[in-house]
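Interim report to the steering committee. The following record documents the input for Endonuclease MutS2 (790 residues).
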Amino acid sequence: MNDKAIKVLEFNKIKNILKDYTNTTAGKDIIDELVPYENIYEVKEHIEETKEAFKLLVTKGAPPFEGVYDVRDGISRAGKGSVLIPGQLLKIASMLRAARRFKDYINHKEEEESFRVLENICEGITLLKNIEDHIFNAIVGEEEISDKASSKLYNIRRSLKDKNYSVRGKINSLVRSYSSYLQENIYTVRGDRYVLPVKAEHKGAVKGLVHDQSSSGATLFIEPISLVNLNNEIKELMLKEKAEIERILDELSREVYQNIEVVRINADIIWELDFIFSKAKFASEYNCTYPIINDKGIIDIIEGRHPLIDRKEVVPISANLGKDFTSLIITGPNTGGKTVTLKTVGLIHLMAMSGLMIPARENSVVAYFDEVFADIGDEQSIEQSLSTFSSHMKNIVDIIDRSDDKSLVLFDELGAGTDPTEGAALAVSILENLRKRNTKIIATTHYSELKGYALKTEGVENASVEFDVETLKPTYRLLIGVPGKSNAFEISKRLGLPNYIIDYARDNISNDNLKFEELIQSLQEKSIKAETDARLAENLKLEAHKEKSKLKDKMEKLQNVRDKEIFGARREAKNIIREAKEEADKILKDIRQIERMGYSSEARQKLEEQRKKLKDKLDAAEEKAIKPEAKGEALKNVEEGQEVFVPSLNQKVIVLSKADNKGEVLVQAGIMKVSVKLKDLRASNTTSSSSNNKGNRKKSKKKMKLNIKSVSSSVDLRGMDSQEAEYTVDKYLDEAYMAGLGEVTIIHGKGTGVLRKAITDMLKRHYHVKNYRLGEYGEGGSGVTVAELK
C-alpha cells in the first residue's frame, strides 16, 4: 500500500488512537508496524480475530492483562544467561500468569460459541506454572525478596533481626552512659554500623573507631569498642543475606533461561493478544461493526462515519460502487461533504484491510484492493516550485502508471486549477482511461461536463451531496444516481438578490439547461425515497437470514444436548439395574448359605423360585430401561457403510463392521463409535442397502462423513500417562478420519520424551496415519507431532 494514501487518508491517526487501548509498549510497537494486509485471506482472518475479541469483551468482560508489562528487555537478558533483578523476574512471572489465565478466558463450554482464531493463537501458549509460582513465592516487590524464598534466607534474616535487637539494646545503654559527651542522646548508623554522635572535644572519653564526622567537624561518629564484635556479626549476616539473595535470583533466572523459547513464545502471543484486544476496544468505543469482505471490487457502505470527526457532529454517509457501475462522479456545492465522502470511503477501506472493524452499519460491504490511491487536498509545493495544478497532475501521472482492476482511486476536484474547458476535457480523458481498465473510481468535481459524461457513459454514475435551499446549508447526504444541481438562483433569491436580476439571468440560459436542472430536482426527490426503501428492504432481508441461521444452530445444539442426555440417562439406568441384580444375587447367595444350616429341600425350592422371579423381573426392567420398543424391520445381515436405525439410541447410525462371533456390530453414531447387537438393529426408512452395490456403499460413507460433527484439528495429551494417551489418540484419530481431516496436531509437550516416543510408536502402525513428523517452528516444535491422515 502506497504511503501517500495512508498519509492523505490519515490512517496514522487511527493507529495513534489504537495505541491508547494497549497495555504494553510491545503492543504499541505492533500497531506502529500495522499496514493493510497483502491478501484477502489475511484480511478476513484478522477481522475475524477482532470480531472474536469484541465478543469476548461483551460476554466475559476485560481480558486478563492485569500486571502485564513489556518484558522484552528482561527476556533478552535471560536469553543471554544474565541474572535478572527482582523487578524483571516479577514482570516475567506476571506475563506467564496472564498467558495461563488467557487459556481459561478463551475456553468455552461445548454448547457455547467457539473462538476459532483466538483459540488457535492461544494454542501456542505453554503453561509454566512452576516457574510462575517459584518467582511469586520468592519475590514480593520490585526490590524485595520474600523471607520464604529459601529456608537459609529465613534463618539468616531471623538471626539478623535478633542481632539488631541485641545491638540496639546495648547501644541505648551506651547512649545513657555517655550522654554528657554526645551532641544528642541518640544513636545513628554509618556504613551499616551502629555509632554514637560524640562531641569532638570529648573524643577521648569514648573509646572506639571513628567512622565519620559532621561537615562542621564538631561531631565525630564513633563506634564503641564494645559494639565492634556485634557490628561485625551483623555485617557478616548482611553479606550472607546478600549472597543468598543473589543465589536465589540466579536460580530463578536459570529456570527462565532453561525455558527461554517457551517464555519468548508466550510473551509474543501476549503482545499479539494485547494488539488484538486494542482493536476490539476501539471497535466498542466507536460503535464499529464486522464488514463483509469481497475481492470483486464491490463497495456498499451503509451509514459509514468518519472516525476522526466528532461523533456528535459526524453525518453518516452511504455509498456503493462496483455492482452496476465502477465510476462515481460526485458533484455539489463547496463545504457540502464531497471531500469527507472520499476520505470516509478510503479510510474505511484502509481500516478493514488492516483487520479493524469499521464505523458503519451492519452488513456493510467493503472490497479488498491491492492499492488505494488518493489525490485529495491542496498539494502545492513551494520547495518544488509546483502550482496546485502541477502538483495534482504529478500525483495523477503516478496513479495512471500504477492503477489496474484491483485498485481504488479517489480524486478530489479532478482537473481543477486550470482553464475550466481544458480541465474538464482532461478530467474526462483521465476517467475514461481508468474506466477501461476496470479501476474503481470515486471523483468529485464542479464541472458540468462530467455530469454529462456520467449520464451517457456505461459504468459511470452521477452522485451529489444534498443541499437544503430553505436553510442554505448542506445536509451532507450522498444521493447516488442524481447529478448535483447548482441551486445558484434559489440561493441568490434567498439571500435577497432582486427578482429582475434573477429573471434576466434565466433568460440568458437555454431552455434545455433549465429543463435539465428541473429534471435533476425531480430525480433527486425520487432517488431519496427509492434509496431509503431499498436499503430498508435489504436490511430486513439480511436480518431474517441471520435469525434463520441462529435458529438452525440453536436446534443443532439442542439436538446434541438431547442425545447426550439420553445416552447418560440410559447408562445410569443400566448401572442402577446392574447394581440391583448384584445385590439380589448376593442376598440369595447368603440365603443359600443359611439353607445349608438346616432348611428343607421344599424351602430351598421355594427360595429358588423366588430368586428366578426376581431375576426375571430385573431383566425385564433392564430391557425396558435400556431398550425402548423397537419398531421397523429387523435385520439379519448388514454391510459396511449401510445406514440403519438403533432403537436404543433413537437415531440412525452408519455400520462400520460386519457382525462378529458375538453377534455385535460396530456403528458410528455422530462422533461416537459404539458396539450394538445385530438383533437390535432395524432397517432405516431412508437408507438404501449397499449389500449388492459397491457404489452405494461409497455414497453412504460419503454421507456419513458429511453428517459427522466438526472435530478439532488438535488433541492435547499433556498430563496423561502413556496408556491413557494412546487410548485418547486412537479414539481421536478415528474421529478425525471420519470427519475427513487431512492433517492433525498431537500435543504431547517436550518433558522427558517418554510420551512423545509412545505416540510415535503408535503412529507407526496406526491404520489411519499416512505420514507423521515433529512440529516445526511456530507449530510447537518438538512438543507436538503432526500426523497426515489417509
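Residues 379-386, 686-709 have pLDDT under 50 and may be disordered. The committee is asked to note this result when reviewing the revised timeline.
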